[in-house]
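Write out the 3D structure for:
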Amino acid sequence: MNQSDIKEEISAKMKLIRIENNYTQEQMATVLGISKKSLVQIEKRRINANWTITIATCALFRNSEIIRHALGGDALKTLESAVHHT
């Protein structure tokens, strides 16, 4: 899995990750350090999260079942592998 694939996968699951953690859009945006407007754009699939937001999401929510399923177990190892094999 490369960085582009990971960004797309996490972006596609962002709303589910947020709901899984019982966060409002405002809370999730604050946690990720982005605007609510940006989060809405990601959730509606108008844009993909950038690499920094993807990494932050995977790190902060590394115990998420949705992330584990999407990235195949250990999300941080998947991210590390993608970085070192680009």
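The helical segments are 3-20, 25-32, 36-43, 51-60, 65-71, 75-84.
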